Amino acid sequence: MNGRSQVAVAQISSLDSFRSGRRLAALLRGHDEIGSAVQAARAALQRAGSIDHLAAWDEVVHVLFGGNLGHAVVLVFLQLSEQWPAQRSTDDLIAIGRAAGDIGRGAGSRAAHALLIELSKVLPRLVGAGGLTAVLAALGQLANGGPESVGLAIGRLEPLLVHAGGEDFAAWVSAGLRASGGRASRRRAYFALDDPLSARLFAVGRTGDDFARLEKRLAATTLALWNRRPRFRKLAMAPTPVPRRTSLAAGFIGLPETFPGFAGEAADTVYLAAVAHAGAHLVHSNVRFPVGRLKALQIALVSLIEDARVETLALREMPGLRRLWLPFHSATPSGQATAAGLMMRLARALIDPNYQDPDAWVTKGRQLFADAAGRCTDPAISREIGGLLGNDIGQMRLQFNAKSYVSNRRTATTIWRCGILAISRTVRPRPSNLRSIPCAWSVARTPMDSPPTTTQGPTRRCVRRPPR
User: Fold this and answer.
1) Crossing angle for the helix pair 32-47 and 54-66, nearest 10 degrees?
2) How far, in Å, CA of 100 to CA of 150, rounded?
3) CA contacts within 13 A on the Cβ side of 171
4) What would the pLDDT profile of 98-138 be if each residue is shown by its tens digit?
5) How far apart are CA 276 and CA 284, in angstroms?
6) Chain mean position to CA 198
7) Strand, coil or helix: what is 231?
8) Beta pairing, strands 247-249 & 252-256
9) 216: alpha, beta or left? (left if phi > 0; alpha if psi -120 to 50)
10) 52-70 residue pLDDT tens
11) Fewest CB within a 10 Å sphere: which of 47, 136, 193, 225?
12) By CB neighbour count within 10 A (0-12 exposed, 13-18 middle, 19+ buried), where does 192 fall?
């Protein structure tokens, strides 16, 4: 296209935008709140260089307003438009607006409003090719085939996308439509996660049973690294979409049948990292710490130091393990300090000698651990250092939410790190403490009075033991 053609196209686009803007302004005459929001959103899109898309965007606003979906739906879309990231194509914004209009007509204005609210939260996770398209298509299909369940499905969007992709969400929706057999009651049960099949598919996604595929290899790896015959336990799928993490209890290594978000070679790597870390605990964590009156934050910090301690001992014998573990530490210095964020940065600082962090608390934790290098075989240093660091965070008045620390951490560190707190047999921890241990591997979470079916070594299986 030559220079004159480009100028002509730009003039036509600008003229179309001008005309569509005038038509929209005429439609919104008398609706001052929406009119002002339209002007602000249009100005933001123009500043971002999206002038070529303004005519299509005006049409979306026209449809949303004229579809009698309510002012709330239109205003949420306009707010999303005003805050639209400049690096993202405006085509995605237009697609979201059109989908909201279609879903609103099929499932009602509440569903359209919920869609726009949820998408504003999860949009950064839908950056891959086809992810957003898959989500919108799946919800459009559900609005046509099961409009009563659209709101339920939208409510599951954010927790699923924490560990999976838009295609996985689409597969879950499609499976629900097929499994319901056209019955609304079954659809509602499925998308409310009251159906065991739905909970299973929601947690597993489309990755299959990776544990069964890798079980013999993991057993052989554990035996080769640590000269220990592992006793594996496949963790049952949780009744809620909270992903299962690896556990270690009474010598049993509990592994989920899949780690959501990991497939293929990535799944192989995370399982290998998990069993290598568990083996380090089996060999080097030989003291049981009483929980007593420890708070969730203190438990988390003692667990973090104990993780680093056993890994340090393991790396002295097998330095190559650092290449397996280090990629799972991706925390970086951030502007706003949070307790969970600082703990993730400290975890990286204790295993990555090249990592630099300007925070004084992280620096202190690293120095305390380095000063105790000569006592690294003594598990007591985990309690000592964790207690000191916990006091410092308390003085900084940083809030710590154990529940969100477990479920919302964005790195893979929590999936395979153990945070091994071996609970003393003479101290029965409170259930609230057990639920709040913010570690991927938690000894106390697995009931010790119900031994599972296990694999003894690479191929030999043992029968279920009677309860103690």
Assistant:
1) 160
2) 12
3) 16
4) 999 999 999 999 999 999 999 988 888 887 668 899 999 99
5) 12
6) 19
7) strand
8) antiparallel
9) alpha
10) 778 888 888 888 888 888 8
11) 47
12) middle
